[in-house]
Amino acid sequence: MRKIGLPGLTSYRRGLAAALIIIGVRGDLHAQTSPVPTLPAQLANYTAVLPPHFLVPAVAQQDNTPADNPVTDAGATLGKVLFYDKRLSDNQTVSCGSCHRQESGFSDPRRFSIGLAGGLTDRNSMGLTNARWYQRRAFFWDERAATLEVQVLQPIQNTVEMGLSLPTLVSRLSAEPFYANLFTAAFGSPTITSDRISRALAQFVRSLVSTRTKYDVGVGVNFSNFTPEENLGRRLFNGETGAATCAQCHGTDNFSPGPRINNNGLENPYVDKGVGAISGRPQDEGLFKVPSLRNVALSAPYMHDGRFATLEEVVEFYNSGVVAHPNLSPPLRARPPAQGALRLNLTAAEKAALVAFMKTLTDTALVADERFADPFPKINFHDADLNRDGRISLGELTRLIDLFNTCYGSVRTGSYAVATEANEDGFVVDRGRSTDSVVILTRYHAADSNRNGKIDLTELSRVMEFYNYRSNTIRTGAYHASSGTEDGFAPGP
Ligand code: HEC
Ligand code: HEC
Which of 224, 258, 324, 374 could bond to 84 as cystine, CB 3.0-4.6 Å? Predict the structure, then answer.
């Protein structure tokens, strides 16, 4: 495990034996160490009614829904709970939603995602919008999972990502009464099996359907709703003007590939050989699946290794940076008699137009839709700042940590005494249950940098920043005591 040092905050080894005092929990929350999801009284509707342009053969044949696992409302509801449940990771700090964030088109804004014990994934997380449509059906950048049903069980067992065996998962979920109800609703009996977990997760992923973007509105009105710039971008993308060939690989109104998997010339040789790393065949080097471009403006960074931070960089890459490679897909090769990789020679306005066009594929409703949101309890800064003075006193902080502890089971609190710094043992991130025995300890007093016995919001955000970095479960944000508006201290999705 990497050792993390943040100035002023001490981290050191401590065994589980250093038992910590768990402070009494507020009455209204009860001493549940186990978060329970909040779901609507009536089952939400997950069976999307598709618009006509999704019913055409070109898109319909991309639909990877198997006949024996159609999306049902109860199945997708169970899938959503599983998707956001940190119980699916060994130390209960990471859920699928930690790396597939709703506001990022179910991708991860970080170049590489952080798994349960702080380790990084090898590749950039993939956006899941419209994952339901992919003609070759297979999943992952290198298509190593033949179906979505196979794919969804892999992150759970992956030692970097969630690190949990399926038998342990089944017995852990079987101990939660609310799961019995959810499995009964979805599958007719409370029995929990990894097959049912897989089906439900796949149903939820397939329910992440985007059909109501500005682009979709445009389909019905011949794009009269587009600005001139967006329309220029659309025509460039489709190859109706200029040399770009985007739609040959990002095709159909789902903007996903047809029957081929492609090499788009990122480098030569490829560091990560994609399909070639699995098959060992040179002719497979650099072949990568690309997910639908829907919500692509939200899912930065880009490519299997997250090498591009912005869509502008992506467009500049296609304009001038495609690298000649023996496996380079034909649409990106120079037109004979020229050799090597295609050069688009786009003007600045054309490049901007391509970006503007890709932004019409953003589905703001989908990424704000409660049906797809984390159903587990959330905590806000202002909930902690009881007297709304813009500061969190130690009493308030204790309560905050309690709340956090109660909801997520991932932090234990201890006592803090300003006077005798050496005696405190508070604010421990519990990593003792993971195979890695390192337990990181952050001290309250280290956060209270001016030693006045209170943690102000700056100090608190530093603690939270640190905590966030370590455990990937909290995001920090701005807090405005005056207006009561804050966006901080939500559990990381
Ligand atoms: C620690 C971060 C992390 C967690 C946790 C995680 N994923 Fe992923 N996910 C990734 C990364 C990274 C990839 C791409 C990996 C690759 O292709 O090698 C990915 C790929 C996928 C894909 C493939 C999409 C496609 O179009 O091929 C699906 C589907 C998916 N994840 C669903 C899930 C589900 C369901 C869970 C929870 C059971 C989950 N993920 C948990 C990081 C994560
Ligand atoms: C020959 C097929 C091909 C063509 C033509 C093509 N792309 Fe791609 N595109 C891909 C592949 C393959 C990837 C994923 C490559 C990787 O990650 O290694 C990709 C990735 C992307 C991504 C990043 C997606 C993500 O989720 O990270 C964007 C954005 C993109 N392409 C836009 C475009 C635009 C705009 C054009 C036209 C200027 C274009 N592409 C032309 C095959 C193609």
Answer: 374
